[in-house]
């Protein structure tokens, strides 16, 4: 199986890239524990920023951008991580997914995540990222992950799961849905809810 993570972080090093790596490791580990071989690729959108802009105005992707789009559309599972800009996903993140064929992500398992300086922006997961991929008819896993600056190295408390626990749970949900999709025929529009039901029934012990 192929797992692709898209990171829209702009800095180096990037907490957005770090979160993408951690989520990919979690999902890959869950699948490997159940004898599933997974090839993982991380796409750094900052390296494609000029190519994305050129594609938007010319309609033609560069070879590197074309390869990234093919990787996303051909993946068995997708992780999409963006920094929060002006209370939403970044413009680069949105521009990249604007280039994806509207039908290419239908039924594809997607884990959404975001990073920001403060926990106040965590609702970006529900008011921006989840609706975006629902519009693209992807199957978004139940647990989305937001990492504020203070979350790194935090173990949480009796009321709130720490970041490592949320990463493990989200990675496990993505792995479970990828495993279901690997043995299920490609879905039509009417089959997406069936896949979601299978995810709710499937648990990795």
Automatic annotation (TrEMBL):
<keyword id="KW-0288">FMN</keyword>
<dbReference type="InterPro" id="IPR005025">
    <property type="entry name" value="FMN_Rdtase-like_dom"/>
</dbReference>
<feature type="domain" description="NADPH-dependent FMN reductase-like">
    <location>
        <begin position="1"/>
        <end position="152"/>
    </location>
</feature>
<dbReference type="Pfam" id="PF03358">
    <property type="entry name" value="FMN_red"/>
</dbReference>
<dbReference type="GO" id="GO:0016491">
    <property type="term" value="F:oxidoreductase activity"/>
</dbReference>
<dbReference type="InterPro" id="IPR029039">
    <property type="entry name" value="Flavoprotein-like_sf"/>
</dbReference>
<keyword id="KW-0560">Oxidoreductase</keyword>
<dbReference type="InterPro" id="IPR051814">
    <property type="entry name" value="NAD(P)H-dep_FMN_reductase"/>
</dbReference>
<keyword id="KW-0285">Flavoprotein</keyword>
<protein>
    <submittedName>
        <fullName>FMN reductase</fullName>
        <ecNumber>1.5.1.-</ecNumber>
    </submittedName>
</protein>
<dbReference type="InterPro" id="IPR023932">
    <property type="entry name" value="CE1759_FMN_reduct"/>
</dbReference>
């Amino acid at each position: 199986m192929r797992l692709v993570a898209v990171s829209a972080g702009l800095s180096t090093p990037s907490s957005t890239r770090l979160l993408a790596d951690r989520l990919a490791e979690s999902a890959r580990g869950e699948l490997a524990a159940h004898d599933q071989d997974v090839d993982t690729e991380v796409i750094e959108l900052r390296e494609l920023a000029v190519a994305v802009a050129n594609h938007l105005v010319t309609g033609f992707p560069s070879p590197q951008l074309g390869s990234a789009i093919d990787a996303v559309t051909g993946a068995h599972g997708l992780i999409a991580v963006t920094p929060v800009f002006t209370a939403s996903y970044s413009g680069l993140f949105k521009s990249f997914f604007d280039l994806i064929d509207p039908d290419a992500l239908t039924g594809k398992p997607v884990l959404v995540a975001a990073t920001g300086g403060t926990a106040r922006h965590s609702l970006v997961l529900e008011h921006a990222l989840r609706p975006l991929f629902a519009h693209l008819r992807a199957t978004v896993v139940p647990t989305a992950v937001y990492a504020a600056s203070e979350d790194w190295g935090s173990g949480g408390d009796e009321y709130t799961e720490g970041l490592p626990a949320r990463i493990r749970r989200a990675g496990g949900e993505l792995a479970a849905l990828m495993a279901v999709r690997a043995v299920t025929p490609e879905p039509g529009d009417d089959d997406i809810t069936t896949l979601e039901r299978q995810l709710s029934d499937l648990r990795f012990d």
